[in-house]
């Protein structure tokens, strides 16, 4: 009997294993992989030096006027370059339904590198899994930060994508969306990676990680197809230091501070026209490639603590485009204004971030696209940017006057999609 029982158990295990392998192979056969990508050479020329990244492909605003002994501006140097680092490779993945949801995934990268020294190296842009139920959706992985609203992105071609007016940042996140017909409620808990906050130790993810609080965003959106509008709120909590040294003695610290930002955005499409816009009231959003940051006080000797203040500002942009056969003209407008600190600071404070010495920046960027076919397109753009560098800041870092400098960038680009 024991031998018969052992044979029966072995046969059961064998048949069960075969059955599982058969189901697994059947499910594997249902996995759909779709590769895509594009080749994107661009050539551009600037009329002066600019604050830039990635071999100049990422442009923010012109550098200030700096005069030499003869009164010549050392930053008034025209520059020319050509790159193809934004060429992309991507993979879309579709698998069988799981837990009652349609499951898809995406992995995409380009050759801009994760840092300026990594140019031409393949870097991850997006990598996420998405589970979609009838009235809800869960996205897990790396994707655009919520303030980069994919449905209303500007139609510009350069890598900056409207920065420093339109945010530009990808984060690792858990994003949950609940659908109520045309209304969408979105909640996101995110973590920094490529785009980091600034601080005493340079750009780092440590300041967010130290706080043990994710970068939190809540949004309410309305999408009827032709009309898309929404509002959003962001809470960023940083802990810039975990230790400090005083009188040659190390001390632990747990001081954190919070920054609050809000946005309103929208898109309206009619006939062959598209109007897109966004406004942001921001604090400490330099990790989104906007202007901003924060200030750190000198050490308070009595309490052995630091205090912090986020640097505030607002930005607004508008993009208007038209489709006329194979031609797609458009224009982008952007304006950003720094509003300084809520409480007084002085020169004994330390300042971290981007553009804290600027009062305002504005840009106008007309473009024309020639869509020869679905696979081949050509683009020409002119990007005119003016930065007003502040003169005589008050105790809130609001400026009495400005020294304005301008840069014009001419851009020619081609896209070959596959």
Could you explain how this protein is built, in words?
With 418 residues, this protein is mainly beta. The chain has two helices and 24 strands. The protein has helices at residues 2-29, 206-211, and strands spanning 32-39, 42-46, 50-53, 58-62, 79-83, 88-98, 101-110, 123-132, 136-144, 170-180, 183-191, 215-223, 227-238, 243-246, 249-252, 257-270, 273-283, 292-296, 308-322, 327-340, 350-354, 358-371, 376-393, 399-417. The strands form three sheets. It has a 16-stranded antiparallel beta barrel. A two-stranded antiparallel ribbon has the order 3-4. The longest helix has 28 residues, at 2-29. The protein is globular. It starts with a helix and ends with a strand. The model is unreliable at 1-24 (pLDDT under 50).
Mean pLDDT: 92
Tell me roughly what share of residues is in helical segments.
under 10%
Helix/strand structural class: mainly beta
**Main pleated-sheet profile:** 16 strands, antiparallel, barrel
Whole-Å distance between the termini?
Answer: 65 Å
Radius of gyration: 26 Å
Share of β-strand residues: over 45%
Strand order of the largest sheet: 1-6-7-8-9-10-11-12-13-16-17-19-20-22-23-24
Quantity of strands, as a count: 24
What general outline do the C-alpha atoms trace? globular
What is the overall number of helices? 2
Q: Low-confidence spans: pLDDT under 50, at least 5 residues?
A: 1-24
> What is the N-to-C order of secondary-structure elements (H for helix, E for strand)?
HEEEEEEEEEEEHEEEEEEEEEEEEE
